[in-house]
Every structure is written in C-alpha cells, then in structure tokens.
Amino acid sequence: MALRPLLTRRTLASASGFSSNGGITTSFRGLQTFSLPDLPYDYGALQPAISGEIMQLHHQKHHQAYITNYNKALEQLHDAMSKGDAPAVVKLQSAIKFNGGGHVNHSIFWKNLAPIQGGGGEPPKGSLGWAIDNHFGSLDALVQKMNAEGAALQGSGWVWLGVDKELKKLVVETTSNQDPLVTKGPSLVPLIGIDVWEHAYYLQYKNVRPDYLKNIWKVINWKYASELYGKECP
Amino acid sequence: MATATATTSSAVPATAFLRRQGANGGANRSLRWARNQHQRWSPRRSGAAVITAKFDLKPPPYPQDALEPHMSQNTMSFHWGKHHRAYVDNLNKQIVGTELQGKSLEDVMIRTYNKGDLLPPFNNAAQVWNHDFFWDSMKPGGGGKPSGELLKAIERDFGSFEKFSEEFRSAAATQFGSGWAWLVYTVNPRPSDGKELLVLKTPNAVNPLVLGYTALLTIDVWEHAYYLDYQNRRPDYISIFMEKLVSWDAVSAKLEVAKSRVA
What we know:
The complex is a heterodimer of chains A (234) and B (263). Chain A is built from 9 helices and 5 strands, in the order H-E-E-H-H-H-H-H-E-E-E-H-H-H. With 234 residues, chain A is an alpha+beta fold. Chain A has a 3-stranded antiparallel beta sheet with strand order 4-3-5. In chain A, strands 1-2 form a two-stranded antiparallel ribbon. Chain B is mainly α. Chain B has 9 helices and 3 strands; from the N terminus they run ααααααβββααα. Chain B is globular. The chains are: A alpha+beta (234), B mainly alpha (263). Chains A and B meet through helix 2 of A and helix 2 of B.
C-alpha cells in the first residue's frame, strides 16, 4: 500500500466545518459532540521515532473512528435517557467507555509527543524532575519501569505516568483497551500516556513492542507533563 | 520424564483430524518446505540437547505465501514466525520445572485459565492453541459456502448462511481491542433455545475451550493479524477472510468430530 507523502498536518477540524474551540460542538438538539483535534506538529515531525505513516493513520483513522463512534453512542444515550430506557442506557456504557476513552486517551497522547526541535525528549526539569528522582530514583529508572510494564501488557492498552492529586504521589499504571487512567483511581491524573495498542507501532516496529517503547522517549513532551504536574502539585 | 513433545490433540483419535490432509497430503508437506526455499516456513528449532517435554511451533498446512494476496506472506512471516513462535517459546520457558510441564496444551490452558482468574502461563498457552486453530481455519482457495451437514446445521441455527455470516462478521468487527471471533458447537449445557451452533467473541487470549464449548472456526482480530495488509480496515480483512480464506472443510471435519463425541 502506498501513501502519498506526508509533509503537512491536516487541519481536519476546519475541513469538516466544526468550530475549533477544543473540538466540541453543540448541535441543534443541545447535544455536545466532538471532533478530531489538530495535531500541533506535522505527521512526519516525530520521525524516526514514530513514522509519518503511523501518525497519519493513528490520527485520521483510529482517533477519528473513536470520535465518530463516541458521538453516535452519545446520541443513542441521549435518546435512551429521554425515553427513560434504563436497560438501553446501561447497555451503551461499554460503547461510551470504549470510544469516549479512545477519544480522551488519544487527545492526551498527541500532547504527550513533540518533535525533537520542539523539545521532544528533553528531560523534565523543575518540580516534576525532582519528584521523579525522589519516587523512582532517576528518570532512567522510571523509563525502564514504564517500558517493562508496557511490554508486558497483554493485548491492547496504555502505560501511564500519573499523579495522584490527593496523595501528591507519582504512579505508573497500565490500563486495558481504552480505559482512561481514572479507572485505576479516581484521583489519578494522567501526565504521560503511551499507547501500546499494536496500531500505535506495528507498521514500523512490527512485533517488537520493546523497540517502540525504547524509541518513543525521544519524542516525549516533558514540558507538557511538567506544566500539568505543576498545576496538580503546586 | 516424558520424552515426547506435547501436541495439541485431544482425546479424539488423530485420524479424525482431517485438517492435516491438505491438497499435498501430510507426507509431501515437509518436502515442499525444503524445495521451495523462498516460500517455506523456517525449519523447526532442533532444541536443546536434553530432551524435555515441550511444545513445538507447528507450521500451517500450506506454504507461507499460499494465502496471497488475501493474507500476505509478509504478514504470515511475522504472525507465525514471530508472534506465534514467541508464544510457544515463552510458554515453554514458563512451564519448565513446574507441574504443568508434560501436560497437554489443552490441559495447561484449562488449568491456567483457572476459572477466569488467569495464571501467568494462560496467555501464552491459549495463544499457542488459538493460532494453531487459526491456521487450520484457513486454506488457499478458501471461502465460499459450506455444504452438507455443516450447512444444514448453520441454516437450522441461524436461519440462513447469510445470517450466520453477518453475525460472525459483526462479532469479529465489534470485539473491542484484541481478541477472536468464533463459531462454536455446544451441547453441554444445551442452550435453552436448542441451538447447537453459536457465534462468540472473546478478548485477548480467551477461547471457547476454556468456556466449555467446542470450537469450529476462528478469526484472529488482534491488530497484528491484519495491520500490515489492511491497516485500520478490520471490516475489509473480515470480508476477505470470509470470501477467500475460510476452510469450510476444516470446519466440517471439526463438527463431525464434535458430534461423534456426543453420539
């Protein structure tokens, strides 16, 4: 299969007619629907750590599909709720978790990545850097831990660096499928999430998930994680 | 200490497994490996000098490029040569020196399924079994419709072949994340509506065997099964599987075996 050269990011939000106020639109019925957020960098900008081909498919196909199906599920939920159809409401929960989770997780993921010229891979400084050293011993130790847990995850899911905003503690967690980090603890805030679904790496790394994990750190956007950590743990 | 390598056969006599007899017959298949160097499956590892009971990576009953263009040789080389091989190797490493060593694959699977409270070797054991079953579910020049007893059973339990096909495709398409879709045969417990054939979908490594069913057909919907050839387009992969790959011969044979066990 050949893809045309991927040099520019696609501003899909404006192409589809939605207003880009964070990708949320309020429809005629008062139901909020979602649209694909722009990437703040070109599809090819994370090469060679992550190929442009993967970035384009991941964004335009996978993330878009979660959004499309999330919107559909929300519409069905709205109907079921207005009819007072409790069994239907409950039945829709898995579609909402799958697709809403997919949208939430991928929206975080694009912010977790940055081209090297944009600071990708630059280690965290300030309070997050200190917290990592305190809790894990070193940044390298954190990376090894996340890579080990990410590699060991069976099937599809995510590996996270999060902060427990109640306990002010850093945590490493994994979630299955598209379960957001909050499913592992209501006070957990995701700082860095790494997608270990096969679609995130297969075209480039094939079965060698550990190589993908090793390389993705070169484009991890610690600036974003540090800002978020600073807000939760001032 | 058992010296034979464990196999995936159940208590049913080996002759009942028609799946081993492809167009080439079992005897010729290994010759084709040697002759067609560029197409052949990699030879089995000779293993350690010490003979221990361990599981083998069995090659599919057709050459690596035989399912082209529907399932590329490229995909097969990774799917069988890397993924399936890793499940076998890792399973062997996990069970050596434990009470699971020397047991049949199905036995290991059921024990480590542990009624849903999965023990660590389950994922590897089940994925070895699942992939063996998956290769057998396909054949070059496959697809089309079943016939005979199988078709009758499908029409009885689903209404029509088309309705079955729709249900199977839908299960495969809607299994979220990694997993499998199956056609299974069930007698015990007999479902309240009297149907013997069911479509199931399972996550990750779970399969119908550990749930008490007899598997007849499967499609792998882990992304590694289709990503190189179809990328995100899982529905296209499923369609091609049904139209061009499924081995109804293998499914019929399995149904025959399942029924003979009950009779």
